[in-house]
Design brief:
The structure holds two protein chains of two kinds.
Chain A lengths: L3 E7 L3 H15 L3 E8 L10 E5 L2 H6 L2 H15 L8 E6 L2 E3 L5 H10 L3 E7 L14 E3 L7 E5 H7 L6 H4 L12 H11 L3 E12 L2 H5 L1 H4 L4 H20 L4 H18 L9
Parallel strand pairs in A: 1-2, 1-4, 2-3, 6-9
Antiparallel strand pairs in A: 4-8, 5-9, 6-8, 7-9
Chain B lengths: L1 H12 L3 E4 L4 H13 L4 E5 L19 H11 L5 E8 L5 H5 L4 H18 L3 E4 L11 H22 L4 E4 L11 H18 L6 E4 L5 E2 L2 E2 L15 H15 L2 E4 L7 H10 L3 E4 L1 H17 L3 H14 L14 H8 L7 H16 L4 H19 L7
Parallel strand pairs in B: 1-2, 1-10, 2-3, 3-4, 4-5, 5-6, 6-9, 9-10
Antiparallel strand pairs in B: 7-8
Helix pairs in contact in B: 2-14, 3-5, 5-6, 7-8, 9-14, 10-11, 10-14, 11-12, 11-13
The chains are: A alpha/beta, B alpha/beta.
Chain lengths: 274, 389
């Protein structure tokens, strides 16, 4: 029985996706199953590991992006009654890159050492956070911006909406299409439900933005700069509509209040507080 | 007393204190005017390149030495709302110490002479920054030993002179000693220990990296950026963490390089608990742009071009350029403009332009001061130091 379900999001980059699948299967095949969500890819550009194909017109036109894509994959596992076979879910975009070697098993090991961690992210050599992870390799954060999250099943179960729209609402708020601010929301939900959100430096991930910059046309997404502009604009609009927040800083203070509260009730984890 | 006054002010008004770089005489006048008109305390923060002791060659701002600068400010600050501050005092902080290849002992002696003049001239806050060393980034213990030596020196000098001073420590430079929360905590712990042992007051401010960085005429740091800056700790993490540590040690945090931040980012400074922020080159650039603007609008393009040429040839824009910059020569000149305001050739251009403009009822210096005042007011409103009109 494999403990982890790895879900990889692809849009029209089968070679990149297949390479990532093969990397994980090679080094972690004994502890994870690998699933691929095709986010409206062209029929001829599907990964050979395709598991679920979002081929409806809107997905074909706009893709799913991380949060809708992961909602789709997770809800598919749930519908097929395979969800509770796994103890955690590793959610990746296909531009995630790792050094040769195991990724999933070291993350699983961290998860087992930190029973209250609900969301775990590998660090990146391009992140300043590594400066905070020199003594302790794993620490709990109130802000994590990444493309690779390992989520504990119990955490997902504590907040998932199994009867709601599977694409928009299963776990993440898919109404925030590009997702600016959505990472902070999921972290707030973790701490609000007695789970921590951690970054570990035991595994490193790199986001290869070259795919987005050089293959924007192939992925059928907006050019990099335009995408960035929309990412922020839509995210701020979403925060305002959902929370009445007009700033990322309000969101930050909102998340941090749950973070501080967590350590009040779980002082035994204070050493992992940044 | 200065410490208590500032702490009480921040607590009562829930504000962020503003440090204004004295980029020019007009900038100094604008800051004094803004502070007095709004009955709000401002800090004038002079680097050693801008203002230094006469014996050390003075500075580029109005060719003033420390005493002249302090006398000028004191005479015009009728209501006592301006704090005169040394920004980045310390060894090798005057570029001539670098150029003349001073040894550590010589550079520290020179720094002491500079501080002595500051204290005797009535400076209120002394920033000691020992992060610079021509032989590379100094070992943290060496930087700390130099800090303690200068701190003790300044305190003893102030007592001898019967002056009251407050201290600022730390640096925003990446090579400095406040890069991570752990390092900041360690620095503040050691400084507190030193102060208790030597019976000297704790620093009022410590400089913190909040994710601000000025290049060309933009703030390119993470504070105002919604996306990651490679190698930086996201400001969402960095700022609250650093403030928490400062509060625990009872030392106020000061941001440097607050120039060009958006109104939104500035308005969050008091809410985030940033106690003070320094802004400098933006005000110099504002004055330069206003100068070019008024000259061009009044068909004095020849004067504008002459000035831009002098600014460009100064090369003072070089250290501010972005990697792979696409800035034009005019943009480079604008960045360097305030460095050459006190050159005789520029004074001559301004004098000739003033005569022409006066005939049209325009007072050039007042016009330039108003432009800088407007720029200062943007910060004062956002920092809750004045009410928007």
């Amino acid at each position: 029985m494999k403990q982890i379900a790895t879900i990889i999001l692809n849009r029209n980059l089968p070679a990149t996706t297949d390479a990532l699948c093969e990397h994980i299967l090679k080094f972690d095949g004994d502890c994870t199953d690998v699933f691929v969500v095709e986010a409206g890819s062209d029929p001829g550009r599907l990964s050979k590991y395709v598991s679920w194909y979002a081929d409806w017109p809107d997905a074909r036109e706009n893709g799913l992006r991380y949060f809708r894509g992961m909602n789709y994959g997770l809800s598919k596992l749930y519908e097929s009654k395979n969800f509770d076979k796994y103890s955690a879910f590793f959610l990746l975009t296909n531009d995630a890159e790792f050094a040769a070697g195991p990724i999933v098993s070291p993350l699983l090991e961290v998860l087992s050492q930190h029973p209250r961690v609900g969301l775990l992210s590998p660090c990146s050599s391009q992140w300043g956070e590594q400066l905070l992870l020199q003594k302790e390799k794993t620490k709990y954060f109130w802000y994590i911006h990444n493309i690779a999250y390992l989520l504990r099943r119990e955490f997902i179960e504590s907040i998932m909406n199994e009867s709601a729209d599977p694409i928009l609402d299963f776990l993440f708020d898919g109404n925030n299409f590009r997702g600016y601010g959505a990472e902070q929301e999921i972290i707030a939900k973790a701490y609000a439900n007695d789970f921590a959100a951690a970054i570990t430096d035991t595994v490193r991930v790199q986001e290869n933005e070259r795919h987005l910059i050089e293959h924007a046309e192939l992925i059928r997404t907006d050019p990099y700069e335009k995408n960035l502009e929309l990412y922020v604009e839509e995210g701020i609009r979403w925060m305002r509509k959902k929370y009445g927040f007009n700033s990322r800083w309000t969101m930050q203070q909102y998340v941090k209040s749950f973070y501080d509260n967590f350590f009040y009730f779980y002082p035994e984890y204070i050493q992992y507080k940044i | 007393m200065i410490d208590q006054k500032i702490q009480a002010l921040i607590k009562a008004r829930k504000c962020t204190m503003l440090g204004v770089g004295p980029m020019s005489k007009n900038c100094i006048d604008a800051a004094i005017g803004a502070a007095n008109d709004n009955q709000s305390t401002l800090m004038l923060i002079a680097s050693r390149r801008q203002i230094d002791a006469e014996s050390l060659g003075g500075g580029y701002v109005n060719n003033w030495c420390t005493q002249q600068f302090a006398d000028y400010v004191s005479a015009r600050d009728k209501r006592g709302h301006v704090l005169i501050c040394r920004d980045h005092g310390g060894p090798w902080q005057n570029s001539s110490e670098f150029d003349h290849g001073l040894s550590a002992r010589q550079a520290i002696r020179s720094a002491k002479e500079s501080f002595k003049q500051d204290i005797h001239s009535g400076f209120d806050i002394i920033h000691i920054d020992t992060s610079v060393d021509p032989h590379g980034s100094p070992d943290p213990q060496v930087a700390l030993d130099r800090l303690f030596e200068l701190y003790e020196y300044c305190w003893n000098e102030a007592r001898r002179a019967g002056r009251e001073i407050a201290f600022e420590i730390g640096t925003e430079e990446q090579s400095g000693s406040t890069n991570t929360p752990e390092e900041l905590d360690d620095l503040l712990f050691k400084v507190t220990e030193f102060c208790e042992k030597q019976k000297v007051p704790k620093p009022l401010f410590v400089v913190i990296q909040t994710g601000t960085k000025v290049l060309e005429t933009q703030n390119v740091g993470s504070f105002d950026s919604p996306i990651r800056i490679p190698g930086d700790i996201p400001s969402e993490i960095q700022i609250p963490k650093m403030i928490e540590i400062c509060n625990r040690h009872g030392i106020l945090m000061k941001e440097h390089n607050g120039d060009y931040l958006s109104d939104h980012a500035l308005q969050w400074h008091p809410r985030l608990g940033i106690h003070a922020a320094n802004v400098a080159p933006e005000f110099g650039v504002t004055e330069t742009r206003a100068l070019i603007d008024i000259l061009r609008k009044n068909q004095l393009t020849r004067f504008a071009d002459e000035f831009l040429q002098i600014a460009f040839e100064s090369g003072k824009w070089r250290k501010w350029m972005l990697p792979n910059s696409r800035a034009t020569d005019i943009e480079k000149s604008i960045i360097a403009g305030h460095y050459v305001f006190s050159k005789e050739s520029v004074k001559d251009i301004k004098m000739r332009a003033s005569e022409v403009l006066a005939k049209k009822g325009i007072n050039l210096e007042i016009y330039l001061q108003q432009a800088v005042t407007k720029a200062i007011n943007r910060y004062m409103v956002a920092f809750r130091l004045m009410v928007a009109t």
